[in-house]
Amino acid sequence: MYTANLIGFSLAVASSAFIGSSFIIKKKGLQKAGASGPRASSGGYGYLLQPLWWIGMVTMIVGELANFIAYIYAPAVLVTPLGALSIIVRNCEKMGVLGCVLCVVGSTMIVLHAPSEHSISSVEEIWELAIQPAFLLYTASAIAVVLVLVLYCEPRFGQTNIMVYIGICSVIGSLTVMSIKAIGIAIKLTLEGSSQVASFQTWVFAMVAVTCIITQLNYLNKALDTFNTAVVSPIYYAMFTSLTIFASAIMFKDWSGQSASNIASVLCGFITVLSGTMILHSTREPDPLPVADYSSLSPQISWLIRANGEIWQHKDDDELHSEFIGIIRQDHFK
């Protein structure tokens, strides 16, 4: 039990290092692509031609591969919360040190009290877990929520409400983890001599995983391109981790047979990691604003706002009056 959990823990930590780095690299690639063409948030795919974005993508794939293997050895309730360690890669100074300590302490609590993996001998057993009424209800609810967010909320609020893109990523992400977990177990059983390749359930899980990953990456790119990374990451981490733990508890019954103290310790560890995540992001430097060329703007006009909120247009031959307060906001001319 502890050996398998330790292997899963080590792989999850390595995964966090790669994924944390990939966020930074992909963000820079998206910014470069947005400076020379349509942004990802506007439906543009110019970032696919950016080498920097691809370097970040490869780094993320390596991290996700390590994460994938970690799910083979350890339960999702152990592996998923350790994703917070990826944020340490991006910030560990001043108050960030406290955030790092909280993440490490919380992760340690989770490792020490995480449930052991249930013994599964075939992919058919995983399929039986996936089609149990409780998990089917969760899956149907997740799909319904995603459809509402994509078809109704995204066109209206996608550019202004951060919860739209992150909600899609998080809900889909919980299903991604469940299918990845199933594929990982199938691969492990195959390598041990019990081939699962011929089982149609293996390929169903594979198709679900690929579909969810593509959808998740698409909307994560939109979230990163539209909103500040310092805001996206902690909200995404909290929602994705919470939904994944919830989905895993329903499908794999991770808490079955666990004592109340162990469950409470894992939950406290998760809350500690979440607190550390929030502190880490509160100490991050804000993303730099995109540089724009204002050379074509006319210097003849400026806007002033009267103290009572009235708008008045100032011309060259007007004298400034003390009643007016000038606002210098060039980005309003974009």
UniProtKB/TrEMBL annotation:
A Pfam family assignment: Mg_trans_NIPA
Alphabetical UniProt keywords: Cell membrane, Endosome, Ion transport, Magnesium, Membrane, Transmembrane, Transmembrane helix, Transport
Any one GO molecular function term: magnesium ion transmembrane transporter activity
Membrane topology: Multi-pass membrane protein
Gene Ontology, cellular component aspect: early endosome; plasma membrane
Transmembrane parts of this sequence: 6-25, 45-62, 68-89, 96-114, 134-152, 164-187, 199-219, 231-251, 263-280
Main location: membrane
PANTHER family: MAGNESIUM TRANSPORTER-RELATED, PTHR12570
Assembly notes: Homodimer.
Function recorded in the entry: Acts as a Mg(2+) transporter. Can also transport other divalent cations such as Fe(2+), Sr(2+), Ba(2+), Mn(2+) and Co(2+) but to a much less extent than Mg(2+).
Family listed: Belongs to the NIPA (TC 2.A.7) family.
Protein name, as recorded: Probable magnesium transporter
